[in-house]
Structure formats: structure tokens, C-alpha cells
Amino acid sequence: MENTKKPDIREQVLQKGLSFPSDRELVMLVLGSGTKRVPVEKLSARVISALDEANRETIVPKLLEINGIGTGKALAIAAAIELGRRKTCHLQAVIRHPKDLVPYIKHYSMQPKEHFICATLNGAHELIQIRVVSIGTVNRTLIHPREIFGEALVEHAAAIIVCHNHPSGNCDPSPEDIETTQTLLKAAKIIGVPLLDHIIINRDTYFSFLEHALLFTG
């Protein structure tokens, strides 16, 4: 008889993506395995029940009450939840002024290479997404308007803000930064998705093209 073994959750996620599994199955991925007495399926169900009753301060103690969950697994689950919170805390934040975006991108200032980032906004100026468009060398990154506006159009963005870090520590825009901004402004006018600002960040401060009246196309 032909072997019709059902793929395990890891194989299914690799094939279908992380949006495919249920919450319980996501926990199974974090746990990796169960114990001799408690299979991972049952253990993950107990974890979900504990998480439904816990808040941020009590997650680890609640998990440690579960038979089969030791310190390592409890911390791994709590860390996964905290990382997810940090990575999505910006969603739907209202950006009244372009500089309001800075707290959500500040961590990129620690990167040793330039990261060019695009933030998309809806009609209410709520953040839709923050994504890295490209990663450059120590002092240069290359971007193209299609990389910026392609995803913005897919997300039905009403506007965008672009930003990048300067690993050198100097926030002043380079001639290439100004040229890139002018190119994006021209593309924004054609495509109909306004570019609200180009922000350059370092560990201590930021430079806003809008605040310095540099949003022009030459």
C-alpha cells in the first residue's frame, strides 16, 4: 500500500506559510516536542488555555504551572509573544506628523549598514506597515521607485514616508539622498501616492526633509 503519511506541522508551514497554522499549531512549532507522558498536541492546547488567562506579567508563572513546561520552554513561548508584540506595536498607530514615525524606526539606527525603509499609511494616517526595502553597504543603499511603490499600491496606501539610517552617525543628507528623494517625489506624483517625508536617523537624532523644506523635485 502506498505510504500516505500526513505531513507534520513544520512541513505544512514550509509549504503554506506561517498564516496557515492555528494558534495551537504555532505553539507546537515553538515547543518542538512534548514529554513522554504528554504529547506536543496536548501540551500546546494547555499552553493556549494558560495564555488566555494570563497577562504580560503572569505569562511565565502561568506556563510553569503546566506539567511538561519547564523554564526553557516557558521563556521561549514568552519571548516569542514579546517579539511579536514589539514587531507589530506600530500597526494602526496614527502618524500626525512624519516625525511621529521616528520611535517606530529608531532601532534601525543601530544597524551597521544602511537600511532603507518604507512606511505605508492609510487615509486616516494610521500605519499599515513598516518594511525594509533594501540593505546597503556601510554607507550606501540602492533603491528603485518600483520597490517603494509596488507594495504601497498592493496595500492600498494613501501615503508613504521613507527613511534610512546613517551608520556614520551624521544625519545630514548626502547628494545621493537628495537625488533619491527627488526621484521618489516625481514617482509619487505620477502614481498618486504622496511621499510625506524622507527621514534620516542615527542613534541620537533624526533629519527630516519636510522640516528642512527639502521636499522638492528640482
Helix-strand layout with pairing:
Blueprint: H1 9-16, H2 23-31, H3 40-53, H4 59-64, H5 71-88, H6 102-105, E1 115-121, E2 127-135, H7 145-154, E3 159-165, H8 175-191, E4 195-201, E5 206-208
Parallel strand pairs: 3-4
Antiparallel strand pairs: 1-2, 1-3, 4-5
Helix pairs in contact: 2-3
Distance between the termini: 72 Å
Estimated structural class = alpha+beta
Q: Please, how many domains?
A: 2
Task: Give the CATH architecture of the largest domain.
Answer: 3-Layer(aba) Sandwich
| Strand/helix succession | HHHHHHEEHEHEE
Overall body shape: elongated
Hey, roughly how much beta strand do the residues contain?
15-25%
Mean pLDDT: 88
Task: Quickly name the level 1 CATH class of the largest domain.
Answer: Alpha Beta
Query: Radius of gyration, Cα only, in angstroms?
Result: 22 Å
CATH topology grouping of the largest domain:
Cytidine Deaminase, domain 2
Unreliable stretches covering 5 or more consecutive residues: 1-5
Strand order of the largest sheet: 2-1-3-4-5
> What is the name of the CATH superfamily of the largest domain?
Cytidine Deaminase, domain 2
Overview of the structural elements:
Strands 2-1-3-4-5 form a five-stranded mixed beta sheet, with helices on one face. The N terminus is likely disordered. The protein folds into two domains: 80 residues, no CATH class; 111 residues, Cytidine Deaminase, domain 2. 39% of the residues lie in helices and 15% in strands. It contains eight helices and five strands. By secondary structure, the protein is an alpha+beta fold. The longest helix is centred in the middle third of the chain and has 18 residues.
